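A student in our group prepared the protein record below, which I am reviewing. Here is the record exactly as it was handed to me.
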Amino acid sequence: MTTRRSFLKQAGILGAVRPAPAQPAPRIWDLHCHILNAPGRTPEERLERLLEFADRMGIERICVFKGARGDRDMSPADLREQNDELLRALKPWSHRAFGFVYLNPKHLDFSLREFDRCVRDGPMVGIKLLLGELASSPNLDPIVERAASAGAALFQHTWWKTGGNMPGESTPLDMAALAARHPTVPMICGHTGGNWELGIRAVRAFKNLSLDLAGSDPTAGFTEMAVREVGAERVLYGSDSFGRSFASQLAKVKDANIPDAAKGLILGGNLRRMMGPILKSKGVRV
């Protein structure tokens, strides 16, 4: 007996249902890692363990800031020690881990020389700014210009503490002031200020500013708001490991209610685009 279904199938009108082809997993690059607090006795051991944990989560490459000591307004001697520790740790991992030189704009002449040593003439590919001078300070202008000349990524820690920031600790508004003075230089607003609902609004008008998702709690809505307000092309996944876990921070992106294409950009595509030229200049295949 011929049924309607069998007739349509024989006629080629009704084909067998085939599963959609599997999409390749996104390549994950973590913008924001530290060896501070990672297990190990030396910076070298700590970075090795950090990469072991990254491997478990499918993270292909990581960017690493600072050495093995905590955050504070550092002197030139302290900064050099931090950068030397990181240079040693990175040496066996040039294909997997990328260093950002730690600078303090309060010590401007030293910071420019340290940039030349670690980035222009060394293996590092970006700048990490934390405390010392607010991002709105004119002291940052020569550092921004030096970064632009080398194509180095420029990352500024920002936070918006309810009880008040530490001396020299920038907010996203300080970062917006810096971006306005250098509208063609790509920059990264670290942590999006922690208080991300305020941080996103503070920087959304500045097309050269990207948002770092790292460090805050994995609260629902952060990534969705960032994509809605500035576009997926200006949002970067980072974990702030070893202060936060890779898994909790990946959840901000993987579980976000945004298209898969946007997730791919945030998890690695945007960072590869931003850092591609300087990595190529240093012989790193991306």
